[in-house]
Design brief:
422 residues; alpha+beta; Pseudouridine synthase; Hypothetical Protein Yqey, Chain: A, domain1; eight-stranded mixed sheet; four-stranded antiparallel sheet; 34% helix
C-alpha cells in the first residue's frame, strides 16, 4: 500500500452520488455554529465564564480582544475549541479573573457577550459535547434537496469519515510539515518553511517578502507582513533581534507550535483513513484493530474472538463502535498485525520514524481517533432569500469532527475552508 503523506487533505469519498457544487461561507451568516457544552458553570469560583458570539472574527482576533479588554495573558483564557472566522459562532470561554470587571462587553462591533457566570475550573480544549451547525450552500439549485437528503441518509447510516478538515493544515496546507520540522528539532528548516519561498506553495502576493527572507534582508521582509501574520512576524522580529534559529522558532506562540504538531499527527491519520475508505473497511473491524467505543471514547483490542462475536457486527451497525486510527505519540496504543504495519508505514512515509518521534522533546502524547463519527439531528431545506438560492443543511457533530467533511460529501468540491472542529 502506498501512502503519500505529503498531501494531508482528504482524498476519498464515502458517498458515490454526484455533488451539488455551490459555495459555502459567501456570508458569515450562512455558516452558524453553536457549541454544545459538556457542563454548565456552577456559579462560583475564580474563573469567569462568558458566552461569546462572534461574527466574522477569527479565534486569534477573539483571544487578542479578550486579552486587551480584561488585561490578562492568553494563558489565563480557556476555550473548548477554536471556531471558524467566516461564520457566526457561539461558544463559552473562561477567564481566570478573581474580581468582577466593571464592563464585560469588549469594545468590538462583531463580538458580543451573551451571558456570564462563574466556575471553579478553566475550560480546557475538548470540554464540549460537540457543535450544532446550520449552513447555507449558495449558488446551487434549491431543488437539489432530494439528492442531498439521500447522501445525508448514507452518512447517518454509515457514519461520517472522521477526516481532519482543511483548516487543520493552514492556508498553505503545510502545517503538518512545520510540525514534522518542529518534532525533528530542525529550527532552521522550520523558519525557512514558514518564511521563505523555497518550501511549500504560497500566494503569489507573498513572493517578494519571502524572497527577501531568503536573501537575508529580514528587516525589509518584516515590513511586508501584516498584523494578521502573527507567527511570521514573531519569528522574523526575533531574527532581526539577532536570536538564533531555535529561539526565533520558539518566538511563535506555544498554541501555534502545538497546533503544528497536531497537524503532523492529523496528516498521518488522514492517510490511514484514506486507505481504509479505499479498501471499504473504514466501517468494519479487522484483526489487529483497536475498536473505538463512542460512548466512553476508549478502545479495545480486536482479535478473532471479537470478530466472531455476533454482537460486534450489531454494535458496528448501531455506530456504538468503530475502527480507530493513529494520532502518533509517545503514549499511543498501537494496533497489530496488518493494521499495525499499515499505520507504522504511514508514520515512516511522513518522514519520521517512531524512534525519532519518541526521542524528541516535542513528542506529543498520542491517542487514538475514531475513523467515523455519528451524524445526528439532520435538517435540510432548499429556498431563495434576498441573497439568492440556497440549500440549507443542519446537523450535530461530536467534538473534533469537521462540518466541511460533511459538506465535502454533499458538494464534491467547494468546501475548502473549515472550522477547527473542536
Amino acid at each position: 500500500m502506498t501512502i503519500q503523506v505529503d498531501n494531508p487533505l482528504p482524498q476519498s469519498y464515502l458517498t458515490s452520488e454526484p455533488g451539488i457544487g455551490g459555495q459555502i461561507k459567501v456570508r458569515p451568516e450562512d455558516f452558524l455554529v453553536d457549541e454544545l457544552p459538556l457542563y454548565d458553570p456552577c456559579g462560583e469560583g475564580e474563573h469567569l465564564y462568558l458566552g461569546i458570539e462572534k461574527h466574522g472574527v477569527s479565534h486569534g482576533e477573539l483571544m487578542a480582544v479578550l486579552c486587551r479588554h480584561f488585561r490578562v495573558g492568553e494563558g489565563r483564557i480557556g476555550f473548548a475549541g477554536m471556531k471558524d472566522k467566516i461564520a457566526v459562532t457561539r461558544q463559552a470561554v473562561s477567564i481566570h479573573l478573581t474580581h468582577d470587571p466593571p464592563d464585560l462587553e469588549p469594545s468590538h462591533d462583531r463580538i458580543r457577550v451573551l451571558w456570564s457566570a462563574r466556575h471553579r475550573n478553566k475550560i480546557r480544549r475538548g470540554h464540549l459535547v460537540g457543535n450544532r451547525f446550520s449552513i447555507r450552500i449558495r449558488d446551487v439549485d434549491p431543488f437539489a434537496v432530494a439528492g442531498v437528503r439521500k447522501q445525508l441518509a448514507t452518512l447517518e447510516r454509515l457514519g461520517v469519515p472522521n477526516y481532519f478538515g482543511f483548516q487543520r493544515f493552514g492556508y498553505r496546507h503545510n502545517n503538518h510539515r512545520l510540525g514534522a520540522l518542529l518534532i525533528r528539532g530542525d529550527a532552521q528548516g522550520l523558519l525557512d518553511e514558514l518564511l521563505g519561498a523555497r518550501g511549500s506553495a504560497f500566494p503569489e502576493y507573498q513572493r517578494e517578502r519571502r524572497e527577501l527572507y531568503d536573501a537575508g534582508r529580514y528587516e525589509e521582509a518584516v515590513a511586508q507582513w501584516t498584523a494578521a501574520d502573527r507567527s511570521e512576524l514573531r519569528a522574523l522580529n526575533a531574527i532581526v533581534r539577532g536570536d538564533p534559529p531555535d529561539r526565533a522558532a520558539r518566538a511563535v506562540s506555544p498554541t501555534t507550535l502545538g497546533f503544528w504538531i497536531n497537524a503532523f499527527q492529523s496528516a498521518v491519520f488522514n492517510h490511514v483513513l484514506d486507505a481504509r475508505l479505499r479498501a471499504a473497511t473504514y466501517d468494519r473491524l479487522l484483526d489487529g484493530d483497536l475498536a473505538w467505543k463512542h460512548d466512553s471514547r476508549s478502545v479495545f483490542a480486536v482479535g478473532p474472538a471479537e470478530l466472531d462475536d455476533p454482537t460486534t457486527a450489531a454494535r458496528l451497525i448501531a455506530l456504538e463502535i468503530s475502527p480507530s486510527g493513529p494520532l502518533w505519540g509517545r503514549s499511543m496504543t498501537e494496533t497489530r498485525a496488518a493494521v499495525g504495519r499499515t499505520e507504522a508505514d504511514a508514520l515512516v512515509a511522513s518522514g519520521l520514524t517512531y524512534d525519532e518521534l519518541v526521542a524528541s522533546r516535542r513528542c506529543p502524547d498520542g491517542a487514538r481517533r475514531a475513523m467515523r463519527v455519528p451524524l445526528r439531528n439532520t435538517e435540510i431545506e432548499g429556498g431563495v432569500d434576498e441573497h439568492g438560492a440556497f440549500v440549507r443543511v443542519a446537523f450535530d457533530l461530536p467534538r473534533g469532527a469537521y462540518a466541511t467533511v460533511v459538506l465535502r460529501e454533499l458538494m464534491k468540491g467547494g468546501a475548502g475552508d473549515d472550522e477547527e472542529g473542536d
